[in-house]
Amino acid sequence: MRDKLRKIISDSSFSEADKALWLSFISVSEEEILKILMEEIKSDARCLDYLIRNMKKKIDSISVKDTASWNNIIAEEKQFLGQA
């Protein structure tokens, strides 16, 4: 699973920085998370774009300790996932 995802990311049109972020994520994620990610990619390849934007927003929010921004990101994420 890990190798398949690495190949998908490596072959993608993401920037090198985004590819590096994805590859780091894939390296540290549990197998169950990777299975879910692969299922989502199969159902809608655009989810990778959403997820990388979301991941970068979270990193930015954490780096500046912006709780309001974090809460907004989580609310948007819940809405995207249909949990709002």
What is the chain-wise order of helices and strands?
A: HHHHH
Sheet-strand content, in percent, reads under 5%
**Poorly predicted ranges:** none
Q: What Rg is obtained from the alpha carbons, in whole angstroms?
A: 13 Å
> How many helices?
5
Structural class: mainly alpha
Percent range of helical residues = over 70%
Number of strands: 0
Characterize the main sheet.
Answer: none
N-to-C terminal Cα separation, in Å?
30 Å
Shape: globular
- Average pLDDT level: 90
What is the fold's blueprint, element by element?
Elements: H1 2-10, H2 16-28, H3 31-43, H4 47-63, H5 67-80
Helix pairs in contact: 1-2, 4-5
Overview of the structural elements:
By secondary structure, the chain is mainly α. It contains 5 helices and no strands. α1 packs antiparallel against α2 and α4 runs antiparallel to α5. The longest helix has 17 residues. The chain is globular, with a radius of gyration of 13 Å.
Describe the structure using short key phrases.
mainly alpha; 5 helices; 79% helix; single chain; 84 residues
Summarize the structure in short.
The protein is 79% helix and 0% strand. The protein is an all-alpha fold.
